Amino acid sequence: MSQSSPTGLSRPVLSRPLAFAVLLLAGVAPVAVHAADAPPVMSGNEIVVTAERRASTVQSTPISMTALSGAQLQARGVNDLQAVVRDVPGISMRTSGPGQTELEMRGLASSGGSSPTVGFYLDEVPLSPPAASLNGKVVLDPNLFDLNRVEVLRGPQGTLYGSGSMGGTVKLITNEPKLDHIEGAYDMSVSATEGGHPSGGGDLMINLPLVKDKLALRVVGTEKYTGGWVDRIVGAADFPLESGSGCGNGISSWAGYGCVRGNVDKASVTAVHHDVNWTRLSSLRGSLLYRPDERLSVTVNGMYQRTIAGGYSEYDQGSAKEAHYQPFDFAEPFADTFWMVGGTIKYDAGPVEITSATSYWHRVETQTMDAAELVQNLLALDTYTGPIGFTERDTSHQFSQELRFATKTDGPFQLVGGFFYSSLVSTWAADNAAQAYAGYSVGGADANPEGIVYRSYNPYRMEQYAAFGEASYKLTPALKATVGLRYYEFHTHVDMWQNGIGTATGNADPTTLTVATSARGVNPRFNLSYIPNPRLTIYGTIAKGFRPGGVSLPAPQETCGNQPVKYGPDSVWSYEVGEKAKLAGGKISFNADFYLMNWSGVQQQITPPCGYPYTTNAGNARAYGPEVEITVTPVHDLTFSLSGTVTSAKIRSVDPGTVGVSVGQPILNIPGATVNGSVSYTAHLNAETTLTARVADNFVGRVYDIAYNQQRLDPYNLVDMRLVLARSPWSLTAFISNLTNERAALTVNNTAFAWLTPSLTRVSVNQPRTFGLTFANKF
Fold this sequence. Notes:
Keywords: Cell outer membrane, Ion transport, Iron, Iron transport, Membrane, Receptor, Signal, TonB box, Transmembrane, Transmembrane beta strand, Transport. By secondary structure, the protein is mainly beta. It has seven helices and 44 strands. β10 (183-193) and β11 (199-211) form a beta hairpin.
């Protein structure tokens, strides 16, 4: 392991690397002038995308976006969502493992509120619930094998993609079945992690034409095991609790949250469970395509995925080892089960193409956290009374329907429009009880025979309606103006039920609350683009994004006072200018933009001294910065790439009554800078065999996060190497991930769905240095 501080936060390997990217951005104007005079270039190697709900290339789409083809994903070893985030500028994450990741873009954090700030799509299916699902911000981590491409759209996409997309949108596009021939592909991987457990698994794809040129089926299956590297260490009865720490006054005084954890590294150890944060992913994805003629196509998609984990990828802050310490032997399993079915009908009606997209998905997440220390702190006890877990079960299902049309003419006027409807039901249930706590109650409240500390059941229902459209007109052959609007309407209904020692009644009697809300509004978008030739695109965009409000669970008034339960929606106005240029006959690709985001009514998480976090509209914020992507191919087989962003995201004003938030405070979970750099070279060993070497470096700057208190997480650097021997149709890849064995603090306490406490902060950590081999073949 690399050297680290006692908190486990590593010293950065790279210092201020983004200065080069900033200098590159300063050269946008001269580059644009030179490219405008350059001869046209063929666009045959461009990735075709559907960011604007119609087919276009990345170069000709006048927005800030990145697209990675399936071949690029394979060449770079990008096989999960976290790898996508590391490879694309302007996007960051808050994660503790697969299925437990929140996405952020352009300074718009999702740590506050219940809705995501980044939309997430699998083909035509919106996978991030549009509002107030307590697990809605945690996106599915789908298998990326046999993917056609990934599209990352930066900036508000509220016109065409709706709520939850005010920071941007991520789209995963699968390969559709081929009607004319049988084909297949598979891969197998094995790897070893330094200080951890081995990993292995594989993928398989089969494409079967059932009726030649009319009906075909494509099926993708995955089974993967990722070995863990974090230990769970169980202490004896002398598990450290620092004397004189403020504990021991008992529940009657509600003196809690004064406990101080002792030196766990000196505790007597009764059990050590090694590498508990293993994960196993099982996935099956299928697509059935029916094309009776050239004008009509019907696609039915289905997917099942289950991810299970033995524990979180977290260690205890302040401990010398990469481990979680606990007074009782209590496991912390996680499971995420998802299934989806969808249907897409496309009809070519001549001047317009009509698309109908219908989907239904169901997701169940369950997780259990060791809560012995948290409850001991909550109740101000002088000892750990007994083992107790906090179990959460999130069940969500959503039906959605979109009907849209897009004009196909090559004339100056183009139009995209449609209607959207979704119905979401999401239930958050929690249980925290043990007989050891049966004798406790608050303020002389009645007995609690089951020892319920906290139990809740909170069904949430929301219906969303929207009508949207974008019209574009070419003022000249090179100059195009686009105007878009989306009218949206929400209706929500939340029923909250909870009981236990840690609730308002203080015993088994329930506290209930019903909240119904509605919201409606209009999201505009204005875009002006100038494309004098296929080598140059210049654009400017003004757009509005929005996010619905939500509900925080009630907290006991005796300890927390009158904490707000409801919070309102927030919105953002985005201003952006950018360019995309091809230089030197296409050997240099240079894309750059600068954005400014004014964020109103920021949904911010607040952690009061009583330990019950809640969300409030804290005030207004501003985020701005440059984004740069440059690729240089001086010769056919050698490629250099560099991308990055510098982000300034801070609170500009604070609403009256908001505690813990101040003017100038950085927005949580937003890196100050990110840089991705790589170099690859392909050597032709003979007419049929190639050897490709690739080195990639991912730098993430300082981040502010919140556990019980706000903390600054140090920058980190992750270096990967790959060596691919290929002889069609097979390839053999040797790889090293995290070459320098960096111990990166990704986030703090993002799995603390129970109470937050100053005595225990847990840090999400990346995988140590890993060596592996992958064999892939096509048939």
